[in-house]
Amino acid sequence: MFCIKTKSLELRLEVIPVESLFRHEDTLPHVVDELLLEFRNWANLQNPIIVDENNIILDGNHRAFVFKELKFKYIPACRINYFNKRVGLRYWFRLLENIKSADLLKQIVEDMNGKLHQVDDQETLKKTLKNNNLDCGVQQGNFYASIRFNKDLVHDAVSAYAVLAEIQDKLVQEGVKLKYFPCQHMYETKFCSELKECEMVIWTPQITKEMVVAAAKRKKVFAPRTTRHLISPRPLNVNVPLYWFKENISLEEINQRFSQFLASKNLEHFGPGQVIDGRYYGEELLFFFDKKQ
Amino acid sequence: MSEKRKIITLSAIGVDSPGLVSKITTKIFQMSGNIIDVEEICRRGLFSIFLIIDFSASKKSIDEITHALKPIENETGLKVILGIHDEDEITDLTEKEDYIVTVLGIDQPGIMANISTFFRKYNINIEDCRMIARGKFFAMEMVIDTSKMITEPPYSHNEAIEKMKDGLKDLCTGLNQSVIIQSEDIYKRVKKLIVFDVESTLIQDLSLKNFLEKIAKTVKPIGSKIESEHSNQGKIQALVKNVSALKGMPVSDLKKFCKILQLNTGTLELIQILKSMGFKVALLSSGFNFFIKRIFEAASVDYAFSNTLKADEHGIITGELEKPVITNTTKNEILEFIMNLENISSDQVVAVGDGSTLSHFRKTVGLSIAFKPDETGMKTDGILSSDRIISMLYFLGISKSELDKYLTRINRKSA
C-alpha cells in the first residue's frame, strides 16, 4: 500500500479486487460506452477510483463498472475515511433546457400524486430542502417551488432519486433536454443570471453520507449522477498501465508493483482552485507525474 | 581536378497568370538543369520568381543554355534576367545563421530605411522581407543572416549578437515599434505551449491599480505595504505576503472587489485563436483565483494556477493561503511541471510577461515576449509595446489576413 499522510486526510493507494466493491449509484449507458471504448484502446488508467473503509465507491463508479465489464480482476483505488470533514458530499443538479413553462412539470408531478409547493425565493427554497431532505426543488426565472411525494412512493433517499429519475425520463420524452451540473453553481450569481427563460433547474434531494453508506451496504443504488464527492486532497494522474489488470497475478504481487510504481513518480501538491488539463479543480490536489529521465 | 559547376540565376517578373512556374521549370528540365533554390512571390496580381539552377549535367555550353532560356520571355510575357555565376559565389546553406525579425506598430515613413541601415552597419544580410500587415497598422517579417556580422573585440560572436538584438530593440522602441528576434531554428520548431503572466499581460493596468487601491483603502494594515511598492506586480506580492491582514473579511467582499478587474481588450479572442492554432494555453498568477476562474469560464484555458484564500465555513477569510503559495519565484517550477505533463521541451514554449525580473520564467523558454515593459534593456526575445495584446500573434507568424479570418470566425460563432 502506498500511503500519503496529509495534515487533513490520509490517502491509501492500493489495488483492490473489483468484486469487493460496493456501488451506491447507477451508471449512465453513454458514459459506460465511452469508457469501454477508451479502456479497450487506451494504455493507462489515469486516476484511481476513491473508496471508503468498506469498499464503497465514492468516485469512479463508471470506471469500476467498466473494469468489471472488461473482466479485469483488480482496480487501483484510493481509500479514505469518508467521514473526515475534508471529504465533502455535494449533488448534481439538473438543468432542463427547452421547457417553456413549469406547467409540464406540474402535470407530471400531479400524475404521480406529488405536489408542488411554491415558495417566495431561492433562500426559502434552500431552507425548505434542508429541512426536508427527500424533497426536490424547482427554479425557473422567479418561480421557486419544492416537490413532495407521498411516503408510499418516496420513503428513503434511494426512492427520492428514483422518482426524480422517472420525472426526468417523462420530461425527456416530451422533448426536454437534460443536463447535469454541480450544485454549487446555483450559488454563483453569474450562473443564475445566465439562465434562459426556457431553462429550468431541479434541485435534487440533499442526502447525507450516512444515507449513502446505508444504501450501498443494502446493495441499493441511487439514480445516476446523485452524489458528487469532493476529496481534498484528490490524488490524480497515477497513470497505471491497463495491461497489468489483464495479467494472471496475485493481489499481493500487483500491490507491490503498484507501490513501487507510485514511489518512482514525482508528486506535486497544489491548493484548490487550479486548472489542469482543461479542468477546474475546487479541491486540493496531489498530482503524480513521471520523473524526467 | 574537378570542373566547376555551371550556375545560372533566372529572375522573371511580370503579370501573374496560371502556368507560369510550369512553363519556366519545364524549359529548365528539358535542358538538364537542376533547381537548387527558388523563391516565388505573387502580390496584387504581379508575379516574380528567382531561381538558382545548376546546369552541370547539361552537355550544352553556358552560351547555348542562356540563348535557349531567353524565349521564356515571349512564351510567358515576363521580363527575364539571366545571370552567370561561379560556384564559389553561392553560399552554402549550412554556413548561414538566420534570425527572424518581426517588427510591428503604427505605420510611419522610415521604418524600413532605419532598420535596414541598422543591419548594414553590422554587416548583416537581409535575406527575405515581407509585409504581414499593411494599412494604418504595420507588420513586417524579415529573415536576416548574421553569419558575417561584424564582431568587435572583446565580444564573442554570440555576445555581439545579443548586443545587436539590444540595439535593434532600442531602435524600434525609438520608432514606436514592437520587435521580436528569433533564431530561425527555434522559430521553425513547433511551439506547443503559451504561458501568460496574468497580472502583467492580461489584466488592464488601470483596473489592477484601482483594485489594489481599493484593497489598500479598505484593509488599512495592508495599505502602507501595498502603497510602498511602485509596480503593480510588487503591490500584488505585498498583498500576498501580508494576506493575514485580510483575516475576518468575508470572501464575498473580496470577490466584489475583484469585479473591478478587467481584461485587456482582445484577450479572450487571443486565447481562442491560440487554442484553434493548436496551442495549449497556461495562465500563471500570484494573485487570487477568483479572477482566474472568471477567465477560465470565459475562455477555457488548459492550465491556470493562482492562490486560493482559506475561508471558514461561514465564508470568512482566515488570513492564510492554501499551500503551496504561488509567488513569482515558484511560477518557474509550475511551468516545469506543465512542460513535464505535456512532454514538451522548453524551446516549444512561448512566455508572455512584462519582462521584469519578476517574470522569471522568461529565461527558460523558446520565445519570450515582454508586453508593455516598464523597464528598458529587457533580456526577452521581443518587446510588444502595442496596447493590443492580440498583436503578439504576428510574432507567431500569423499575417493580418489570417488574423482577420480568425476574428471573423469568432464573431460569427458568438453572434
Explain what the structure shows.
- The complex is a heterodimer of chains A (293) and B (415).
- Chain A is of the alpha+beta class and 293 residues long.
- In chain A, the strands form five sheets. In chain A, strands 7, 8, 9, 10, 11, 12 and 13 form a seven-stranded antiparallel sheet that branches. A five-stranded mixed sheet of chain A has the order 1-2-6-4-5. In chain A, strands 14-19-16 form a three-stranded mixed sheet.
- Chain A has helices at 29-41, 61-69, 103-111, 122-131, 157-173, 189-193, 209-217, 251-263; strands at residues 2-5, 10-17, 44-45, 49-51, 57-59, 74-79, 87-97, 115-119, 136-140, 143-148, 177-182, 200-203, 227-231, 234-236, 240-241, 265-270, 274-276, 279-281, 285-290.
- The model of chain A has no long low-confidence stretch (mean pLDDT 92).
- Chain A has two domains: 2-86 and 232-290, Conserved hypothetical protein from pyrococcus furiosus pfu- 392566-001, ParB domain, CATH 3.90.1530.10; 90-217, Conserved hypothetical protein from pyrococcus furiosus pfu- 392566-001, domain 2 (2-Layer Sandwich).
- Chain B is an alpha/beta fold.
- Chain B has helices spanning 20-30, 62-69, 72-76, 111-121, 157-174, 184-188, 198-201, 205-218, 220-227, 232-241, 251-258, 267-276, 289-299, 331-342, 400-414; strands spanning 7-15, 34-43, 46-54, 79-85, 98-106, 125-133, 137-145, 177-183, 193-197, 280-288, 303-307, 309-311, 317-321, 349-353, 367-371, 382-384.
